[in-house]
Design a protein that fits this description.
seven-stranded mixed sheet; about 15% strand; 9 helices; about 325 residues; alpha+beta; about 60% helix
Length: about 325
């Protein structure tokens, strides 16, 4: 609990939340990690949360969104991290925003330490109440999205560098890597694309309010954090544009890799065809002289020399012709 922007109390029982909210100039943050239905119902009774929002908080496949209820907002978003092995990890967090309280519901894989640090680093914002807490949470989440995209961007650049390296292509399946990158960016798009609607909705509420809910005590009815939300919106737009640009780049790398593979295959086929033609010449000559019929020079030394010279000259001529055409 913060009182007038200063941390006042920690680790108090859940049933004390409503008591603290009855006090003036207080902001309460309640955090539930992987709660069951009973814990969520206790919190809902304590804070008069909407049953539909409580149900959504327990779902595992909700998309990022903002729902507005008479007494609170319900926000769903996803934190994003890149595992050491390059695997993308998503962790859902649901947020209830009341005029004097913020409630976060998430699984154990969502790390709240950066969020708490962001709150501690900006104590002046805490005077704005739960709005500031939500902004700090979303800012950290979007920064995590950008960090993952930076990691993928580095991998895309490495793939571009290896694209025309024949030795690297022989030792590394670049097509498989680009397919994996594209799959990850598809997963990122499912998260970052709805975030623009989330921030736009919060920005509209912060800047203009909602005629359907004109309660002055409703969270985000005022506009102190409008400028910060606009900055957050710019970050979200950049995230979407960056992800789309990387998807296009990866698609180009994938298609270029296929074109290079086809060109390399054509080159190999041309070389094999050229050598097959060269070998076919002496085979034809020796086959002709090897028939069981008399031929000019049969059984004589000069006949052997002539046949050998014909074989060598014809094979050499075919080799020179293919070499000039670039087949060999």
């Amino acid at each position: 609990m913060w009182r007038k922007g200063v941390l006042d109390e920690e680790d108090f029982p859940l049933e004390c939340v409503s008591d603290h909210l009855a006090e003036k100039d207080t902001v309460v943050w309640a955090d539930l990690t992987a709660p069951d239905l009973a814990e969520m119902q206790q919190l809902a009774d304590e804070l008069s949360l909407d049953p539909l929002a409580v149900e959504d908080a327990l779902e595992h496949h909700e998309r990022p969104k903002v729902d507005r209820y008479p007494s609170h907002l319900f926000v769903t978003t996803y934190g994003m991290t890149m595992a050491p092995g390059g695997e993308l990890q998503l962790s859902r967090v649901s947020v209830f925003v009341l005029p004097q309280a913020l409630v976060t519901v998430h699984n154990a894989d969502f790390d709240l330490e950066p969020v708490v640090k962001a709150w501690d680093d900006n104590p002046d914002l805490l005077a704005f109440g739960s709005k500031a807490l939500l902004y700090g949470l979303l800012d950290v989440v979007v920064d995590g999205h950008l960090a993952c995209l930076q990691s993928i961007d580095d991998r895309v650049e490495e793939a571009e560098d290896r694209l025309f390296d024949a030795r690297s292509r022989a030792g590394h399946d670049i097509q498989r890597e680009t397919y994996e990158l594209r799959r990850q960016m598809t997963g990122i798009r499912k998260v970052v694309l709805p975030m623009r609607d989330v921030v736009d909705t919060l920005l509209r509420i912060a800047g203009h309010g909602d005629p359907a809910h004109s309660d002055p005590d409703h969270p985000f009815q005022q506009t102190e954090l409008t400028e910060r939300l606009r900055d957050l919106r710019d970050h979200v737009i950049r995230t979407n544009e960056w992800n789309d640009g990387l998807r296009d780049t990866v698609t180009t790398i994938f298609e270029t890799g296929l074109s290079l593979a086809n060109a390399n295959l054509n080159q190999v086929v041309r070389k094999l065809s050229g050598w097959a033609a060269i070998i076919a010449v002496p085979t034809a000559v020796t086959g002709f002289y090897g028939q069981n019929l008399p031929y000019p020079g049969s059984g004589t030394t000069w006949g052997f020399v002539v046949s050998s010279m014909v074989t060598i000259l014809l094979a050499l001529g075919v080799w020179v012709a293919f070499k000039r055409k670039g087949w060999l």
